[in-house]
What does this fold into?
Amino acid sequence: MKNKGFRSFGRSLLCLCLGLLLGAAVMIAAAWLTLGENRWETVWREGLLPLFTGGWREGPLALLGRAAPDAVLSLGISLAWQGGIVQVGGAGLHALGAAAAMLCASLAGLPWYACLAVSALAGGLWGSVPGLLKVKLRLREALGTALTAWLAIYVLQAASTMIAWEQPAETDLFIPALAIAGVLALLIWLGVKFTVPGLDLRVLGVSEKTARYAGVDTGKTAFWALCLSGLLGGAAGGLDYLLGGANQLPDLSLALTGPGLHGLAAAALAGGHPLGAVAAAVAVKYLSLGAGTMNGAVFSPEMGEAILALILYCCAAFALGPGKGGRKA
Amino acid sequence: MTFTASLSLFFAALLLGALAAAIAGRGGRSLYALEGVMLTGGLTGVLLSHEPAGVSLLAAGGAGAAAALLWGLPLLRYRRNQVLAGIAFNGFAASGAMIAAQIIGGVSYTRKGYWLEIAGENVTVFLPVAMAALLIVWLLVHHTCFGLRLRLCGQSPAPERMGLRVRVVRGFGLLLAGFLGGIGGLSALLSLGGGWRMAWGVGGLGYAALALAWAGKYGPFRAFGLALLLTLLYGAAAWFGAPESVQTALPILAALILLAIAGRKRPAEERMEV
It folds into this structure.
């Protein structure tokens, strides 16, 4: 397979399979420790079968609609990835976006699209903080985005005593959510591939020195990449709230697992490609929904998160290049 | 738990975590998985908290070392993306801790065995351990042949040509870092309040410790000073009766600011672009 796309797809598929295999091993180990008899049968019936089929339970439209927030988040991560910037603060952006959308819907009674715009704005503003620090003070973005994510979640957790979480009035927004994710993916792909700022971003992703030598304003490009990434992360949180997915004020349990991990896993599986990120987000959501249908008495609800973390680990350890984003430095 | 006990546990967790990140950094690897390493070590230690303190500390260190190796071995062999591998490992550690807690039917622990009486005062055992670790790390990294080898191998893979086994030296550095991180994780879990849940990990202290190590340019004594500063902030927030979330968020905010201020000068390992 000489084609680069095929090679990358094959590598991602291999990582997905390896991650699933390791996940299955964890499930078998958990069953071995908790069950006395019929272990293999229980692993298959209560674990693996629901994991691989549970995603279809609500039908394809619901699956695609529910995958839309993850897709938008992974698009944000992929956009930064194209510039060699590792955006690992997806959890904080998602949480902030969901909280902003909830406040707009419950306090101001704004329509869903206005709530979505406000959540995107909140995410964009928060995403610009590490961007600004990176440009002005050369903050390392990987740790900077992670720390800002923790801060956002801590602030929301502290606010949980003052804010009562309310569910959105209308949650049947699968088709608009799907359309938003599709259009954004197409726009980002076209923007990165065929526009001058997109080329600047890609050159920055290859090497910062090369970009500077080629006359790219590296600081400005990195700042806007982080801003847009934050905007998409915030929009993902808002979308998740409006679809009824985010059903409580974010707490610290979302910092290490949850939407941030899903978005990163999807972006890593896609190797930072915007169109691939949407497809990978659907696969990730399928697994996540499937994991939710496993027998909770035997397998912890966290099993799905563990499997997704293993998939991300396999991608990072065996498929992606070192250092900057997914590219070879 | 008294105010000073909580402060000393928090300080020891930050210092041990920062020392772990500093050793791994000297070996050319940024320990992005520190949060997961601390959680793994902490959980193991907490599960053995009813045993003598030494056993619990050694178990925490051992589990942390194993976790650091698990994270780092593929990276040493294939030189792949350590940031994403770290984030993935942290996620796996958090979910794994929840799965383990369900399997064993909940985690119960005690802080009783972790106190020493020095000059009539009750002092947590983690404080002398952290100070001893500070001295040992300083001596080991800056004044021994192993330290020189570690720093050489951290700078570049070129010492392979001098007959040094670069991967082995780096792996040993990771092992040591994981050991300290694991004990720091136990201290962190014991310092956290009663409403703490396993899914919260060590509450971002791993990332804060990593930021301290970077801000201190991998210097053990600089890490000590910065950890002290963050602990004072934590203590001040507690003194003024801030909610627990704000108490832990303040040091993280300070770590971010310190990291940004220190960003202009980067540690030697990165300048060499290993």
